Amino acid sequence: MGYRVVVAGATGNVGREMLNILAERQFPADEVVALASRKSLGTEISYGDKTLKTQDLEAFDFAGWDIALFAVGSEATKIYAPRAANAGCVVIDNSSLYRYDAQIPLIVPEVNPDAIEMVKNKNIIANPNCSTAQMMVALKPLHDRARIKRIVVSTYQSVSGAGKEGIDELWDQTKGLYVPGQEVDPSKFQKQIAFNVIPQIDVFMDDGSTKEEWKMVAETKKIMDKSIKVTATCVRVPVFVGHSEAINIEFAEFLDEDEARDILRQAPGVLVVDKREPGGYVTPVECVGDYATFVSRIRQDSTTENGLNLWCVSDNLRKGAALNAVQIAEILGNRILKKA
Fold first, then answer.
1. What is the arrangement of strands in the sheet containing 243-251, beginning at the earlier edge strand?
2. pTM, two decimal places
3. Active site residue: 89, 143, 243, 287, which one?
4. Is there a catalytic annotation at residue 143?
5. The CATH classification of domain 131-315, taken from the options 3.40.80.10, 3.20.20.370, 3.30.360.10, 3.20.20.30
């Protein structure tokens, strides 16, 4: 017997990917329902070789459903996630709403799968921020070997991380630059994103960091190790899909770059592409549609005693959101629900 699965926010970029990945990975679902807001009621969505029509999230009864994958944003999640959880349906939430709740697990399956046991507290599991998720996949096996003390990370985040509006703004601005009279002013982003980079993602905080940067710090500590020091600079770049990160790591012990490369080649969810030649690395365009977190340009940092640098790329709609959520659902089924 399989599971009854809900995908809330099924018309958005992440919701559609959730349905795609459930089908691709042949998740043992006897029934899948797609939910959306009333303005999208009846929209047809692909699920494998089937077509689902969206139902109304506001009116939906979660009783009798096993797992709900939420991709609806924090405000809607605040209303509907407790409703689902109280009805006995386990919520796996992609918003930031529950990530920092000490009673709710924040999970990257390759890193801290045992945290799934905490689901019994509130029937809710949090999915991490997209930029944090890929970094944790790449760094956890290295942390296990040499213990990470400090991380300095600069991100290059695609516009799809800001949803469909972000994708549309990059597309429309790019076209507008070539057609006189059709210029598009910034709306979703703070400044022009076409042919530009913007060193702000989310709002500014009192210490001068942005909330996106704060998320990477807080989530790294919760998922991997609270003793790790993290400093981040998060930048939006004119790329449609795929987040990239330049990561500098300081370890408690010396870790040779060749050993690090070998460790990462064996690590779950990681694919190493690291040739010291032109093009011997992965860029965001090449990672789109793939499950892996790609690691390239692994090299010693000569400015510190126990340092490494690396380049990390992943499809933010997949590992950064939808894939991670489905992987959590797989662990939930295998360890907690045990129906299939």
1. 229-236, 148-157, 243-251, 307-314, 293-301, 270-272
2. 0.95
3. 243
4. no
5. 3.30.360.10
